[in-house]
Amino acid sequence: TPESFLEGLVLPEGAIRLPDLTIGGMKTKELEEALVTGGHRISDYAMDLLKSKDFTTLAEPKRISLVRATPHVMGLTGNPTMDQIYERADKLNWDLCPAETGPHLRLAYKDQPMNEWLSIAMKQIPDRNGRPDVFYVARDGDGSWLFARWAKPTDRWNPTNRLVFSPRK
User: Fold this and answer.
1) The dihedral formed by the CA atoms of 14, 160, 36 and 140, expressed in degrees to the nearest 10
2) Is this prediction's pTM over 0.85?
3) Half-sphere exposure in the Cβ direction for 63 (13 Å, CA)
4) Band of the pLDDT at 169, cuts 50, 70, 90?
5) In angstroms, how far is CA 112 from the centroid of its own chain?
6) How are beta strands 125-126 and 132-140 bridged, if at all?
7) Residue 70 has pLDDT above 90, yes or no
8) What is the pLDDT of residues 23-62, one digit of tens each?
9) Between 28-37 and 44-51, two packed helices, what is the crossing angle to 10 degrees?
10) Strand positions, DSSP E, the chain
11) Which distant-in-sequence residues (6+ apart) come within 8 Å of 98 by Cβ?
12) How far is CA 134 from the centre of its chain?
Protein backbone atom coordinates (compact mmCIF):
# COMPACT_ATOMS: atom_id res chain seq x y z
CA THR A 1 0.00 0.00 0.00
CA PRO A 2 1.23 3.54 -0.66
CA GLU A 3 2.96 5.34 2.21
CA SER A 4 0.92 8.13 3.81
CA PHE A 5 2.48 11.23 5.34
CA LEU A 6 2.10 14.98 5.56
CA GLU A 7 -1.51 14.90 6.71
CA GLY A 8 -3.00 12.43 4.30
CA LEU A 9 -0.78 12.84 1.25
CA VAL A 10 -0.51 9.45 -0.43
CA LEU A 11 2.46 8.61 -2.63
CA PRO A 12 2.04 6.61 -5.82
CA GLU A 13 3.58 3.15 -5.64
CA GLY A 14 7.30 3.48 -6.37
CA ALA A 15 7.65 7.09 -5.22
CA ILE A 16 10.07 7.48 -2.33
CA ARG A 17 9.99 9.99 0.46
CA LEU A 18 13.45 11.44 1.04
CA PRO A 19 14.57 12.80 4.41
CA ASP A 20 13.43 16.34 5.12
CA LEU A 21 15.98 18.93 4.06
CA THR A 22 16.90 22.28 5.59
CA ILE A 23 17.35 25.00 3.01
CA GLY A 24 18.02 28.71 3.48
CA GLY A 25 20.26 30.48 5.95
CA MET A 26 23.21 30.61 3.55
CA LYS A 27 24.09 33.14 0.89
CA THR A 28 25.04 31.86 -2.56
CA LYS A 29 28.77 32.32 -1.98
CA GLU A 30 28.51 30.39 1.30
CA LEU A 31 26.76 27.53 -0.49
CA GLU A 32 29.46 27.46 -3.15
CA GLU A 33 32.21 27.44 -0.50
CA ALA A 34 30.47 24.68 1.49
CA LEU A 35 30.22 22.54 -1.65
CA VAL A 36 33.89 22.98 -2.50
CA THR A 37 35.19 22.46 1.05
CA GLY A 38 32.89 19.43 1.37
CA GLY A 39 34.69 17.82 -1.56
CA HIS A 40 31.83 18.19 -4.02
CA ARG A 41 32.42 19.17 -7.62
CA ILE A 42 30.38 21.85 -9.38
CA SER A 43 29.96 21.75 -13.15
CA ASP A 44 30.40 24.93 -15.15
CA TYR A 45 26.70 25.01 -16.00
CA ALA A 46 25.70 24.48 -12.36
CA MET A 47 27.98 27.41 -11.54
CA ASP A 48 26.05 29.46 -14.13
CA LEU A 49 22.87 28.74 -12.20
CA LEU A 50 24.46 29.63 -8.85
CA LYS A 51 25.70 32.94 -10.26
CA SER A 52 22.41 33.81 -11.97
CA LYS A 53 20.32 36.74 -10.76
CA ASP A 54 17.42 34.23 -10.82
CA PHE A 55 19.06 32.04 -8.16
CA THR A 56 17.98 33.13 -4.70
CA THR A 57 18.31 31.77 -1.19
CA LEU A 58 16.12 32.18 1.87
CA ALA A 59 17.58 34.36 4.61
CA GLU A 60 16.31 32.05 7.36
CA PRO A 61 16.58 28.24 7.44
CA LYS A 62 13.43 26.29 6.54
CA ARG A 63 12.75 22.55 6.49
CA ILE A 64 11.08 21.11 3.42
CA SER A 65 9.82 17.62 2.65
CA LEU A 66 11.02 15.87 -0.50
CA VAL A 67 9.77 13.04 -2.66
CA ARG A 68 11.62 11.25 -5.46
CA ALA A 69 9.74 9.78 -8.40
CA THR A 70 10.15 8.95 -12.06
CA PRO A 71 7.72 10.09 -14.77
CA HIS A 72 6.59 6.45 -15.03
CA VAL A 73 5.86 6.26 -11.28
CA MET A 74 3.96 9.54 -11.62
CA GLY A 75 1.61 7.80 -14.07
CA LEU A 76 3.05 9.28 -17.27
CA THR A 77 3.69 7.15 -20.34
CA GLY A 78 6.29 7.37 -23.07
CA ASN A 79 8.78 10.20 -22.89
CA PRO A 80 6.85 13.11 -21.36
CA THR A 81 7.88 16.73 -21.69
CA MET A 82 9.02 18.81 -18.73
CA ASP A 83 5.70 20.67 -18.91
CA GLN A 84 3.77 17.38 -18.73
CA ILE A 85 5.86 16.23 -15.76
CA TYR A 86 5.29 19.50 -13.90
CA GLU A 87 1.53 19.43 -14.68
CA ARG A 88 1.27 15.88 -13.35
CA ALA A 89 3.22 16.82 -10.21
CA ASP A 90 0.72 19.60 -9.55
CA LYS A 91 -2.13 17.08 -9.76
CA LEU A 92 -0.26 14.90 -7.25
CA ASN A 93 -0.04 17.93 -4.90
CA TRP A 94 3.71 18.21 -5.37
CA ASP A 95 5.36 21.59 -5.72
CA LEU A 96 8.51 22.53 -7.54
CA CYS A 97 11.46 22.81 -5.20
CA PRO A 98 13.15 26.14 -4.52
CA ALA A 99 16.30 26.27 -6.67
CA GLU A 100 18.54 26.23 -3.60
CA THR A 101 17.30 22.68 -2.93
CA GLY A 102 19.91 21.42 -5.42
CA PRO A 103 23.01 22.71 -3.61
CA HIS A 104 21.56 21.94 -0.16
CA LEU A 105 20.64 18.38 -1.19
CA ARG A 106 24.15 17.91 -2.60
CA LEU A 107 25.59 18.95 0.78
CA ALA A 108 23.23 16.77 2.82
CA TYR A 109 23.18 13.61 0.68
CA LYS A 110 26.53 12.25 1.83
CA ASP A 111 25.68 8.57 1.26
CA GLN A 112 24.29 8.95 -2.26
CA PRO A 113 24.60 5.63 -4.10
CA MET A 114 27.12 5.37 -6.92
CA ASN A 115 25.70 6.34 -10.34
CA GLU A 116 22.51 7.86 -8.96
CA TRP A 117 21.40 11.04 -10.71
CA LEU A 118 18.59 13.19 -9.28
CA SER A 119 17.07 16.11 -11.19
CA ILE A 120 15.64 18.85 -9.01
CA ALA A 121 12.13 19.75 -10.16
CA MET A 122 12.41 23.55 -10.00
CA LYS A 123 11.69 26.66 -11.99
CA GLN A 124 14.28 26.56 -14.73
CA ILE A 125 17.14 29.08 -14.67
CA PRO A 126 18.87 30.14 -17.91
CA ASP A 127 22.50 29.06 -18.33
CA ARG A 128 25.23 31.08 -20.08
CA ASN A 129 23.67 30.24 -23.46
CA GLY A 130 20.15 31.17 -22.39
CA ARG A 131 18.99 27.55 -22.20
CA PRO A 132 16.73 26.75 -19.24
CA ASP A 133 18.41 24.38 -16.78
CA VAL A 134 17.66 22.60 -13.51
CA PHE A 135 20.12 21.29 -10.93
CA TYR A 136 21.21 17.67 -11.01
CA VAL A 137 22.63 15.98 -7.88
CA ALA A 138 24.87 13.06 -8.84
CA ARG A 139 27.57 10.69 -7.72
CA ASP A 140 29.74 8.81 -10.18
CA GLY A 141 33.29 7.57 -10.55
CA ASP A 142 34.51 11.17 -10.68
CA GLY A 143 32.96 11.98 -7.31
CA SER A 144 30.04 13.85 -5.82
CA TRP A 145 28.61 16.47 -8.21
CA LEU A 146 26.24 19.37 -8.54
CA PHE A 147 25.41 19.46 -12.24
CA ALA A 148 22.88 21.32 -14.34
CA ARG A 149 20.87 19.81 -17.17
CA TRP A 150 18.83 21.34 -19.94
CA ALA A 151 15.15 21.44 -19.15
CA LYS A 152 13.19 23.29 -21.81
CA PRO A 153 9.45 22.95 -21.24
CA THR A 154 9.23 20.83 -24.43
CA ASP A 155 12.27 18.62 -23.70
CA ARG A 156 11.32 14.95 -23.50
CA TRP A 157 12.40 12.96 -20.44
CA ASN A 158 13.14 9.29 -20.09
CA PRO A 159 10.39 7.55 -18.09
CA THR A 160 13.03 6.34 -15.60
CA ASN A 161 14.65 9.74 -14.90
CA ARG A 162 14.54 10.47 -11.16
CA LEU A 163 13.11 13.84 -10.15
CA VAL A 164 12.82 15.44 -6.72
CA PHE A 165 9.68 17.41 -5.76
CA SER A 166 8.38 18.97 -2.55
CA PRO A 167 4.98 17.63 -1.45
CA ARG A 168 2.41 20.33 -0.83
CA LYS A 169 1.44 20.64 2.82
Assistant:
1) 110
2) yes
3) 4
4) confident
5) 14
6) antiparallel
7) yes
8) 999 999 999 999 999 999 999 999 999 999 999 999 999 9
9) 150
10) 4-5, 9-10, 16-23, 41-42, 62-69, 94-95, 116-120, 125-126, 132-140, 143-150, 162-167
11) 23, 56, 58, 64, 122, 166
12) 7
pLDDT of 6 reads 58
Where are the extended beta strands (E) located within 76-126?
94-95, 116-120, 125-126
Residue-wise pLDDT tens digits, 83-128: 999 999 999 999 999 999 999 999 999 999 999 999 999 999 999 9
* pLDDT band, residue 4 (cuts 50/70/90): very low
36: CB partners within 8 A, 6+ apart: 42
Q: Report how far apart, in Å, the C-alpha atoms of 61 and of each of 18, 82, 91 are.
A: 18, 29, 28
Contact 118, 136 (CB under 8 A): yes
- 3-state secondary structure (DSSP) of residue 125: strand
Looking at this protein, which amino acid is placed at residue 153?
A: P
Contact 130, 61 (CB under 8 A): no
- Residue 129 near residue 25, CB atoms below 8 Å: no
Radius of gyration of the chain (CA): 15
Report how far residue 7's alpha carbon sits from residue 24's, in angstroms, rounded to the nearest whole number.
24
